[in-house]
TrEMBL record:
The lineage of its organism: Eukaryota, Metazoa, Chordata, Craniata, Vertebrata. InterPro entries: GPCR_kinase, Kinase-like_dom_sf, Prot_kinase_dom, Protein_kinase_ATP_BS, Ser/Thr_kinase_AS. ATP binds at residue 51. This is G protein-coupled receptor kinase. PROSITE patterns: PROTEIN_KINASE_ATP (PS00107), PROTEIN_KINASE_DOM (PS50011), PROTEIN_KINASE_ST (PS00108). Pfam families: Pkinase (PF00069). Its EC number is 2.7.11.-. One of its GO terms (biological process) is regulation of signal transduction. One of its GO terms (cellular component) is cytoplasm. SUPFAM superfamilies: Protein kinase-like (PK-like) (SSF56112).
Length: 368
């Protein structure tokens, strides 16, 4: 009897996922390969963000490896501080990843578009602590993120953050290193710029850049209105002086940034055997209870207003140009079959459990 019920459950879990599984609402944004739309699962009412990758755009830019890599890594992640993948499916023209919906905007918008540039100290501490928890989870899975920047840190309705956009992340075998100049200029660690082998060290450098930018209202290696070229940015990251204004930085924040922005990865905070534990024990976080934080029991210092949209008008973003000279054929089907795997077990089970407990999604935020 129990085994029969188990089979029924697994059959329901593995049901075919198509665009008809969801109701689609407003567009949330656009990216290099496609668009993001708010959507709702018809059966449960759960709200998500559907990241639609245009097949022709992916093929034209040879983005198959990046798209599949992000999808496969997201399947292995289960943290309240990293966006979760709930479903992956395809339509005739798109590859779709159904992800945690984050209506509160990204940290870049909050740093630069709400009041004076920068964030309050308690916000900086809270967001840095949650990012640290997200990185710890990824590192425990052997995943180095490699693209930590304000645009990739998203807020949910309650003000908690999640790390997003794992397209540049890579999974390392135990004890192995990786090499590759990937990331965003201005946030890339020296060892990445110099094309050296590295492990998790670029992520702790990225956290230092993030804490600095949230505090100062500008990145550590770029002045406001500065359009420095790539070569100059590389020089600054390798050897430039980092200035800490006493108006913005206290002693603990300066020490944390200096420890994370140490150019030698062997001396950088977080890069010793204790990893994230060393970062979490820094005096900057002395008022943070990380156990309660990881349990979701700490109240965020800022809660987004549900009546506001925390992003630029998506209509201001240029439409995709028509992709010419790119045709889809049978050779692409093998890649699509790896991508189109339906529901992700743990997240689907959590969704059904929440539905059974009366926790239903709402479409109101999607229609804002």
């Amino acid at each position: 009897m129990f085994f029969d019920r188990f089979l029924q459950w697994k059959k329901l879990e593995r049901q075919t996922i198509t665009k008809r599984t969801f109701r689609q609402y407003r567009q949330l944004g656009k990216g290099g390969f496609g668009e993001v739309w708010a959507c709702q699962v018809r059966a449960t009412g759960k709200m998500y963000a559907c990241k639609k990758l245009q097949k022709t755009q992916v093929k034209k830019r040879r983005g198959e490896t990046m798209a599949l890599n992000e999808k496969q890594i997201l399947e292995k992640v289960n943290s309240r501080f990293v966006v979760s993948l709930a479903y992956a499916y395809e339509t005739k023209n798109t590859l779709c990843m159904v992800l945690t919906i984050m209506n509160g905007g990204d940290l870049r918008f909050h740093i630069y578009n709400i009041g004076p540039a920068g964030l309050r100290k308690e916000q900086v501490q809270f967001y840095a602590a949650e990012v640290c928890c997200g990185l710890r989870h990824l590192h425990q899975k052997g995943i180095v993120y490699r693209d930590l920047k304000p645009e990739n840190i998203l807020l949910d309705d309650n003000g908690h953050i999640r790390i997003s956009d794992l397209g540049l992340a890579v999974e390392l075998r135990e004890g192995s290193l990786v090499r590759g100049r990937v990331g965003t200029m201005g946030y890339m660690a020296p060892e990445v710029i110099d094309d050296q082998y590295y492990g998790m060290s670029p992520d702790w450098w990225g956290l230092g850049c993030l804490v600095y930018e949230m505090t100062a209202g500008r990145p550590p290696f770029r002045e406001r209105g500065d359009n420095a070229k790539k070569e100059e940015m590389e020089r600054r990251i390798r050897a430039g002086q980092i200035e800490y204004s006493p108006k913005s930085f206290n002693t603990q924040t300066i020490d944390l940034c200096r420890s994370l922005l140490t150019r030698d990865p062997e001396q950088r905070l977080g890069c010793q055997p204790s990893g994230a534990a060393d970062v979490q024990s820094h005096a900057f976080f002395n008022t943070v209870n990380f156990r309660m934080l990881e349990a979701g029991l700490v109240v965020p210092p800022f809660k987004p207003d549900p009546k506001l949209v925390y992003c630029s008008d998506v209509q201001d973003i240029d439409e995709f140009s028509t992709v010419k000279g790119v045709s889809l054929d049978c050779a692409d089907d093998h890649f699509y079959s790896k991508f189109n795997t339906g529901s992700v077990c743990v997240n689907w089970q959590n969704e059904v459990s929440d539905t059974a407990n009366g926790t239903y999604g709402s479409a109101s935020a999607a229609n804002r």
